[in-house]
Amino acid sequence: MEMNASDRDLVEVMKRYFAVKAEVDDVKTRLEAARRESGEEIVVFYNPRTNGDHAADIMRSHALKQELARLMEWAEAWGRQSLTNDRA
Q1: I need a surface site. Which of 31, 47, 48, 49 has the fewest CB within 10 A?
Q2: Is residue 31 part of a domain?
């Protein structure tokens, strides 16, 4: 199977997706461990305005999740385009 530039782009997007997903999981694990240790309620702990100690990780988690969504949107658009090209 021969890969074109678009296929290679998809591979790079998916590599980035899984790298970001691993980082999200790592941040989530750290945050949840800290939350359990603190004994705070979820809604209180995950508020970056009131949790200065973990605000950077909370904001990073949100940013990474947004990046995951953008990457998946790109992959879905690629898939729709690929299907359209296959039908033509």
Answers
A1: 49
A2: yes
